[in-house]
């Protein structure tokens, strides 16, 4: 079984008891994965595909834009150390969620902005944060947020050589670029 290059845990692991999982699509998944693995409280990250119709797609299939899948990062985290709301703040601030089926120079539905909600509370938090960030962007002259929020559906892990890609290839491509608009800070973080 393939091990995570930083955490040395098997990819595909279930969330340990008391931990949660999240899933985000923010364009090319290499930089997104690094953003999340660098956070205290994150236990595992892995890149893959979700939100489409083709079962167990290959990278070559997904990059055609015909599978309906987005490039995503699955994050397993200890919510006593990092909240889901903090992950949402990172999500909003580190890409442009107004671009529809692209992110920067990367074009296609596989680069769309996406959140998969695993619980009702995640869905409610994601929807509230989307509304809040949409308002913040509008004040600064940006267009409407196009981020899709979907219910839990299959996650298909990406190729082994794409996992922790920027750890293995430090000078590799990273398309992460936010709008410069700050998202609302989680209440727990406001007191620190």
UniProtKB/TrEMBL annotation:
It comes from the Bacteria. The active site is at 28. Pfam families: PMSR. One of its GO terms (molecular function) is peptide-methionine (S)-S-oxide reductase activity. Residues 21-174 form the Peptide methionine sulphoxide reductase MsrA domain. It catalyses: [thioredoxin]-disulfide + L-methionine + H2O = L-methionine (S)-S-oxide + [thioredoxin]-dithiol; L-methionyl-[protein] + [thioredoxin]-disulfide + H2O = L-methionyl-(S)-S-oxide-[protein] + [thioredoxin]-dithiol. Keywords: Oxidoreductase. Gene3D superfamilies: Peptide methionine sulphoxide reductase MsrA. Its EC number is 1.8.4.11. InterPro entries: Met_Sox_Rdtase_MsrA_dom (IPR002569), Met_Sox_Rdtase_MsrA_sf (IPR036509), MsrA_MetSO_reductase (IPR050162). Belongs to the MsrA Met sulfoxide reductase family. NCBIfam families: msrA. Has an important function as a repair enzyme for proteins that have been inactivated by oxidation. Catalyzes the reversible oxidation-reduction of methionine sulfoxide in proteins to methionine. This is Peptide methionine sulfoxide reductase MsrA. It comes from Paracoccus onchidii. The gene is msrA.
């Amino acid at each position: 079984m393939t091990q995570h290059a930083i955490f040395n845990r098997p990819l595909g692991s279930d969330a340990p008891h008391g931990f949660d999982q999240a899933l985000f699509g923010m364009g090319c998944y290499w930089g997104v994965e690094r953003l999340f693995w660098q956070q205290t409280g994150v236990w595992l990250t892995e890149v893959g595909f979700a939100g489409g119709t083709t079962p167990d797609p290959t990278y070559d299939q997904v990059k055609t834009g015909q599978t309906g899948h987005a490039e995503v990062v699955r994050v397993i985290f200890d919510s006593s150390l990092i909240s889901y709301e903090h992950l949402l703040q990172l999500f909003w601030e580190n890409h442009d969620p107004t671009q529809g089926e692209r992110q920067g120079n990367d074009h296609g539905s596989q680069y769309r902005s996406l959140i998969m909600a695993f619980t009702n509370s995640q869905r409610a938090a994601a929807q509230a944060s989307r509304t809040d960030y949409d308002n913040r962007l509008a004040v600064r002259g940006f267009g409407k947020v196009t981020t899709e929020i979907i219910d839990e559906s299959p996650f298909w892990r990406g190729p082994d050589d794409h996992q922790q890609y920027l750890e293995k290839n430090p000078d590799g491509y990273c398309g992460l670029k936010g709008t410069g608009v700050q998202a609302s800070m989680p209440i727990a973080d406001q007191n620190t």
